Amino acid sequence: MPLPSMKRDIEPWQDPNAEPYIQIESISKKYAFIEAVRNVSLSIYKGELFSLLGGSGCGKSSLLRVLAGFETPTSGRVIIDGVDITDLPPYERPVNMMFQSYALFPHMTVYQNIAYGLKQESLPKNVIHEKVMESLDLIQLSSYADRKPEELSGGQKQRVALARSLVKRPKLLLLDEPLTALDKRLREQTQFELVNIQERVGITFILVTHDQEEAMTMSTRMAIMEEGRIRQVGSPHNVYEFPNSRFVAEFIGSMNIFDGVVIEDEFDHVLIDSPGANCLIHATHAGATPVGSNVSVAIRPEKVMMSQTPPAGTRNCTKGVVKEIAYLGDISVYYVELPSGVRVQSSLPNLLRLSERNVTWDDEVYLFWRAENGILLMT
Question: What is the DSSP string of 335-364?
């Protein structure tokens, strides 16, 4: 009897033979003297929930409008399912867009809002009814069919707008910061609802957001944008744990960064002299880092441990004074000032009440971390 296969499933973007469903090829977009999108190329696969993440003015919304057909690219091509749609008008593209404002028709009921696009195609009434009721069931608002938008909560409006965008089953759905208008608790709940709906319908989503938590929670992969360019593409885990540049490291979450010079370069580690860290840094994530190279070492606050007694060893260990404590409910962030003047963040879970802890303001503490937690960034 043959042994069972031990082959693990791989994601399509990890398979060199997989065909991208959406290809964005060298897209640039200029407005007068401003280049909003600069030679962006992306391959997105069928069924992905792909996020474009970046600060205001980074070009993410301009790229989304090019995909929707609301803007003509200065150069480059957009291909969906093997068809070049670059020159097609919005109404001829297999693409729909869900706007930040939801743009529901106030004089129409929920049913009529969802049915609007189907009626424009002159479909039979029984087909329209079947598709609308299926969409209402998908968003769990079947009992709200006869209500007007003004009678709905923000989360319910968001779901109606989503149903209206999905009812025609586009090949691609674009979402332009769809959760911005919701409060924090509802936004967190809706994130998971959106992911579940997307998985059920199997339609490819591209989400534009400036909210890191939103992108990290929802995305299969994400692209970090800066000044119209893509800085890094990867799964939320890979982008968070292995940023490829100082910009990405500082943009995603909180990060401690120490500058230094490589004084030892071996096949499995490097040793860095960092005056700012006030210690020698031993890191295992090494690339081409010859002795004498200027590098930065990035360490996430949750990877920085804290103690009032010195740990074993002197590498990856420094000492400072607690200057600030930010209590965030589930965690507390300690801001520790080193003799160099550099402030280091250490995030610790609140297993004890703050008043029951030994460490408080102005205490001297030791900070230390494991070698594998240091991420090398070339300067």
Answer: EEE-TTS-EEEEEEE-SS-GGG-S--TT-E
DSSP 276: T
Contact 85, 164 (CB under 8 A): no
As its CATH architecture, domain 18-246 has 3-Layer(aba) Sandwich (3.40)
Secondary element (H or E) of residue 330: none
What type of residue sits at position 44?
A: I
Q: By the 8 A CB rule, do 377 and 249 touch? A: yes
Q: Indicate the CATH number of 255-378 among 3.40.1080.20, 2.40.50.140, 2.140.10.10, 3.40.190.10.
A: 2.40.50.140
With a CB cutoff of 8 Å and minimum separation 6, the contacts of 303 are 369, 370, 373
Most distant CA atoms of the chain, gap in Å: 76
What is the residue extent of each domain of the chain? 18-246, 255-378
Rounded to 5 degrees, φ, ψ at 184 are -60, -45
The structure's pTM equals: 0.90
Q: How does pLDDT run across 349-363, given as a tens digit for each residue?
A: 988 776 667 899 999
| Of 2-16, 86-100, 131-145, 209-223, the least confident | 2-16
pLDDT in tens, 64-116: 999 999 999 999 999 999 999 999 999 999 999 988 778 899 999 999 999 99
**What is the rounded radius of gyration, in angstroms, for the C-alpha atoms of the chain?**
25
CA–CA separation, 102 and 157 (whole Å)? 7
Task: Give bridge partners of residue 84 from the DSSP assignment.
Answer: 79
